[in-house]
Amino acid sequence: xxxxARRLAPAVLKRGFWTLRTAASDRRRARSRKRELRRLMRVxxxxxxxxxxxxxxxxxxxxxxxxxxxxxxxxxxxxxxAGEPDAELLRGKVVADFGCGPRGSLCWATAARExxxxxxxxxxxxxxxxxxxxxTYVRSYESHIPLATHSIDVLFTLNALDHVDRFEPLxxxxxxILRPGGTxxxxxxxxxxxxxxxxxxxxxxRIAAGLLRRLRVVSCRVAPKGPDDDCYRYFFRAPPxxxxxxxxxxxxxxxxxxxxxxxxxx
Length: 266
What we know:
The chain is of the alpha/beta class. The protein has two domains: 23-68, no CATH class; 74-254, 3-Layer(aba) Sandwich (Rossmann fold), CATH 3.40.50. Helices cover 33% and strands 20% of the residues. It contains six helices and seven strands. A seven-stranded mixed β-sheet has the order 3-2-1-4-5-7-6. α5 links the parallel β4 (152-158) and β5. The longest helix is centred in the N-terminal third of the chain and has 43 residues, at 2-44. The relative contact order is 0.11.
């Protein structure tokens, strides 16, 4: 037994050394990330709180993905939300994504005449190389989108409206920039408790009152939320029997002619 222990001791010590070394490396990366985050906050005027937490999330994604944010999944996801087999819906249109993030969510939509990403953190996202995307980026504000009225033909939003501080005024802004006859395609996380980065608790009733009542709903689908690495899974396959918990709403609607901008609540 003693001989066996002596033989195993070097291997155990070596594993322990690499464990400590890995932990130390992780701590160094975390400190480096915090320093970079503080620098970005200073340069781009990002205050602590929700926006700082969102920026830290994207910084972590940037590091984890090797200094390049992947965007290959957006084509399949956006077309599935729209219920379309291909991108013909977008041909020759002005297409926008509200709450786009820094991945280049519309780079795939080459049939469009113009592709616009809208996000409150656009200035800070330049750190992630968004200028290399074949898109136009517009910085929005919590209650205002600086785009002309009736300027967007097709408007996407993917899990973004629970991130805003004021849900109803942002819904009014989305309706304002969407042209009459334009198409709205959205994905909403339902029933999730508010958090620092997602302060809005969204329900089907609240989304209907704030947004969908002003649209002609073409399709509306609800599925249980999948695992973190595949949260839209149950739009493509049947969920386990009796699965409970948060849900996701996919909706497509058209803005009728003559729709006026609703008065913001609050």
